[in-house]
Design brief:
mainly beta, 4-stranded mixed β-sheet, 1 helix, 42% strand
Amino acid sequence: MERILRVLIIYIILNISISFPLCKQGENHCIKCHNQTNLCMKCDNSVYIPNKLGGCESIKKCQQYNNHCLQCNENKDLCMKCEFLYYPDENGGCSNTKNCAVSHNGNCLECKNDYILIGQELYEGIKVCKSKKSLDLLHCNYTDLTTGFCIECEDNYYLGAEDMICTSTKNCSKSTYGLCTKCISGFYLNKKDNECVFQNKTLVNCKVTLDNKTCDECEDDFYLEEGGACISIKHCLKGGSSCSKCADGYLLTQKRDSCVKTENCLLGNKAIGICTECMAGYYLDYRDGKCKSNSENEDFKNCIEANGDCYQCTFGYQVGRDNRCTTSKNCDLSKDGTCIECESNYYLGLDNKCTKVENCIYSNSYTCIECKEGYYYNRNTEKCVIAEGDFKKCKIGYGTEYCLKCKNKYYLNQTDHACYDNDIQNDFYKCSMTDDNAEYCIDCSDGYYLSEKDHKCTVIEGCILFNDENKCIECGQSYVLDVKEGLCHDNDVILDEDKKFYYRCNRTNEEGTACEICEEGNYTINENGLCFDDAHCVNMTESGECLNCQNDFNGTYCLNEYFGCEPMIFENCLECNDLLDLYKCTKCIDGYEVNQYNICVPKKK
């Protein structure tokens, strides 16, 4: 039965649509047709409505005793008198509300100018026309069309929570959604009460407060300190715990405590006011956020981003190990963008590129220093080649017959440019190269030192002459000979308190317990066997004890209890009694005191 009814309904609808002209959207006031029935569903304005025949008909016509009308005019287009509680409208009908412009069957569809149509459940679905000039809608931007209450006020007005009326916010310069967002100059916004309050001493330069006690947001050009005070930052537009946005043409420094001129900045992040890209020819220094010329500083030529060192270069360049921009990878040192020294295992070719030599295990910036086992470096071809014949002992050669440097355990004879064993106990023991005539050694193997006077190699650093027992008998400058040990020691610093007699000493006594000869200078050996300087003493007792050292334009000295007057790089120092660090001041002259860096500074008053 249900299926038969469905078929019957469809049949009736189809017959209706066939008996009348087909609905065409945009014609005869119809703006929307039904897909299946071809009947009009919506007409183009409130004067026309869909009728039962599927078209649009005008409702601007009057019929006595129809649609709540009691009396029509002579033209039969306007109702002159309506039923009780109905009112004539401008469209010729009767409406259930005054000030209606268009109605249908007694229901208002459109209000007159300066009125809005409100539908309230209180009137059981009946709609009314409410004046926009009514008290509760004055200065209202948006009205709830169901309740008739204002939901958003114009700028400089706020919405009362109880009466829903838009009220002016005194001293407010800007408001949104009925709430003040900014006060006029000299006033701050108390968000709790939505009012603008005169800035007092506590909240001077304050823009917004939540509790009327402490500031939460400062005015433009000010930022909020931790203590709640608003501090001025020139060109700062938005503050917080620090400045968060600068004015156009200015950028924040990295510490966010000042706005700097954005000279030569191409792109920036305006949200936080930081330059992100500089103009061509400038690099971005993240330490202060400024764009600086990369042509006026050779350390930053071809650089576009830096933070103390360059870490991003322009196209075609890369950052070398010296943190400068170079055209070559694996570069250790460059100048003006050109590599002048390569990193280990690479050498600098004629094209100023760093190239790695095949079979080379160590190289400097210009050449391979050592090839892997079974190879030697041929300077002619700039390659590591297989070592054959006499060249098995050669490390670096020029061609295939001329050796320039021998491998370990061999020395180079510079008369025939061949390599010979250096493990034999003779004049060339541990030697790596002879002189041009092969009469004596001029360079030693790694770990050995050349004795300047006898041209022999020894393991004793600083020794210039040693005896047949391989003990040193004379040391070079800046070394002291310990006669008992036969060794040379550094005499510039004190590494061991028990060996303090090495300081300034040239040669010890035979027991190796005290200095016997001091190095050149104004030194005398005192009773403790130490090299003592009293030549720069300016205040001495009758017993010969120095009380004060020279401290004038001729030099600065401090008094040390072991060595007398010591040269001091810091002024106003009186004593330097730290034995292991004689440049550390331990007592200052009157009016000065030792600070945390062990130098003399004026005393605090």
